[in-house]
Amino acid sequence: MITITVEKFAKMYVENNPGEKFNDIKSNLKAALSRKKAGAVCANCGEPIWAAGSVIVGSDGCFTCITGESDHSGDYEVYE
Ligand SMILES: [Zn+2]
Question: How many angstroms does the Cα of residue 63 sit away from the middle of ligand 1?
């Protein structure tokens, strides 16, 4: 995955989704990241959650279960 800061990801996300609010996305990302750090796993398969994707879809899951794909080389994950 391509790692990107919470700030950058939130900025990119609101640019592509004009209805979304930067501060909301940022705080949701931080919350998802905290859950990931605390050991949150995908309810489906037990892999660590994909914080960025979990915020976009609105529920916690891993990359594969959220996207149905196994290649995540071109996708983003957030860090602080
Ligand atoms: Zn999963």
Answer: 7
Q: What domain range is 54 assigned to? A: 2-79
22, 11 Cβ separation under 8 angstroms: yes
| Residue 67 confidence (pLDDT) | 97
How far is the C-alpha of 3 from the C-alpha of 44, rounded, in Å?
A: 24
Number of domains in the chain: 1
Structure confidence by residue, pLDDT tens digits, 15-73: 999 999 999 999 999 999 999 999 999 999 999 999 999 999 999 999 999 999 999 99
Distance of CA 35 from the midpoint of ligand 1 (Å): 15
Sign of CA dihedral 41, 42, 45, 47: negative
